[in-house]
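Ticket closed. Logging final result for Endonuclease/exonuclease/phosphatase domain-containing protein.
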Amino acid sequence: MYKNSWIIHAHICDNEGKTFCYLTGVYGNSKPDIRYNQWIAFTNFVPPANNPWVCFGDLNEIMSAVEKRGRVPFMPDDALPFIQMIDCCSLFDMGYQGSPFTWCNGQSGLNRIYKRLDRAMTNSEWRLKFANSRLYHQFTLESDNKLFIIKDRPLRTFSARSFRFEAVWLTEDRCRTVIENTWMNNLHGSPYVLHCKLMYCQKSLKHWNKYELKNTETRLQELQLQIEHIQTAIASTNQPNDALLHMEDKLKQEHHHLLEQHQILWAQKAGQMRLLSWDLNTKYYHTVVARRRQKFHCSN
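Final structure:
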């Protein structure tokens, strides 16, 4: 789409001509005043909404003290224009695996300096579409900067996760019934009665969740189609009957209820229940979950 001496901005399409992602390669000038103007210009390359975007390159910037070792200490004010650009473009640092530094000045003793000058950044859409993508710092003898490679690969499978009570279950009246029916079963062996009742409750709730509660995203899609059909029928007549209008209201209420459930579900997965804001926008929580899974994978 565009290129010059410091940037290559590409629109990547699949075999059918549909947008796959946007890709931007960047070189940050070594002179701060020129780099300052680069970051101002960079905001013009933000792709249209809802498109995955990854930016990477030798940016000649560090964002914190942990990204530098040696000589003059890191000065936070020096990174401010770069950080403001990242915030303006709604980008996130992709993180990395490998050495914490990507550049060395090659000098010896106290004169040696290490910095993380190369990085990759992505938007929320990229994190959701390529949740398993990783950036690897690679050793090379050909440059004072390390190579890095971005790979998209499946996470390793883990053993079944331990039981967790889902907060979203409390929004369903049936949850209480499932627990009560299980709890009322007669059990023998007094030292283990409580343990057994809790174990059976876990099994009953997991079975109910799996076989009676549909996936919230699937249910939302089904409701959306029903609402669209009803609204089409209403729009096709000058005097829609009350039954159609009543059905539309009922479906909208159910749709809103499911959206609330969906937000609770993803807020709990993200470990941020306390931050629930009832704007029904779960993209933030999806992004946090993707990031937490990435960190968990790295630590293992």
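The chain has a mean pLDDT of 82. No further action required.
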